[in-house]
Amino acid sequence: MTTRHDQDIATLRAFNRLYTSRLGLLDAAYDGSPFTLSEARILYELANRTDPMAADIARALRLDPAQVSRTVKRFQERGLVAVRESPAHGRHQLLSLTEEGGRAFTTLETSTRMAVGRLLESLSPFQRSRLLAAAVSIGDAFEGAEPEVRLRGLRPGDLGLVAARQAILYSSEYGWNGDYEALAARILADFHQAFDPRKDDAWIAEVSGRMVGSIFLVRGEEPGVAKLRLLYVEPDARGMGVGQRLVTTCIARARALGYGRLELWTVSTLTAACRLYQRAGFVMTGETPNHRFGHDLVDQIWSLRLTP
C-alpha cells in the first residue's frame, strides 16, 4: 500500500529528474562550456568570494574537500586560479581568479544567463509566474528561517476565501457536502452585515503572506455572551501553533470587550479542534446527535467563563 510519505518522495524525485533534464545538469559540460557542473559552481564561488580557501568553498557547496582541492589544482594548471599563502596563517592557501580565470567566468556567466533566459522565454506568462514563485518557495524551504505566523484583521476577499477553503478542506477530510459551504457563507455574510467593532472581531492567520487559518468573534444572543466561530487551520500549517494562537487571541479580545462567557458550536468529528478548546479551558456543556453536511454527526456546545 502506497503511503502519503511514499507519494511525497516520488513527487520530489520526479521534480529532480525534470529539473536536471531541462537545465542540462547531466550534460558532460555545463551550458556548452568547458566546465562540468561542479567545476562551474566552484568557479562561481571563486569569482564571488574574496580570497577564499578551498575548505570555505567545500563547505559552501557541500562538496568533498578533496574534490574541491583537485578542481582547484586543475584550474591552477590551466592558469585560471592563483594560489598564495595567507599572511595570518602560513599553512592556509588563499585562492583568487587570474585575469584568464575572470574572463572564463564572465563567458560562463553570460552563457548561463542566456540559457536561463531562453528557458523562461519558452514558457507562457502563467507558467513563468508559477515557476518563479515555486523557485522562491523552494529556496525558502531549504535556506529560509522557520516561517513566522502572523495574525491580521480582515481585508476585502477574505470572507470568500475563508468560506471556500473551509468547504474544500472539510469536503476533502470528512466528505462534507455543500451544505457546510452554504452555512459558512451565511455566517460570514451576517458577520459582515452586522459588524460592530465594539462587539465583534476577526483574525486571519498568515505564513509568508498566505492565509493559513481564521477565527471570528461574534456577539451572541444573550447579553454578555460571545461566540467563537469558523476556526480552521490549513493542513500544512498544523503543528505550528496557529490554532492555539488564534484561540488565545480570540479569548483575550472577548475579555477585553467585556464579555463574561465565550461559547462555540462544533461537531465531535473535529477532534483536534476539540482538544484545542479543552486546553484553552473550554468545557463541553452539551451534545446532540444530528444529520448535517450529508453525515450523521454529534453537535457539541463548548463554553468558557471569562470572568471570575
UniProtKB/TrEMBL annotation:
Domain annotation N-acetyltransferase: ranges: 149-307
Keyword Ribosomal protein assigned: no
Annotated Pfam families: Acetyltransf_1, MarR_2
InterPro entries: Acyl_CoA_acyltransferase, GNAT_dom, HTH_MarR-typ, NAT_camello-type, WH-like_DNA-bd_sf, WH_DNA-bd_sf
Domain of life per record: Bacteria
Keyword terms: Acyltransferase, Transferase
EC number: 2.3.1.-
Domain HTH marR-type: 5-140
Keyword Acyltransferase: yes
CDD domains: NAT_SF
One of the record's GO molecular function terms: acyltransferase activity
Name of the protein in its database record: GNAT family N-acetyltransferase
Native organism: Azospirillum himalayense
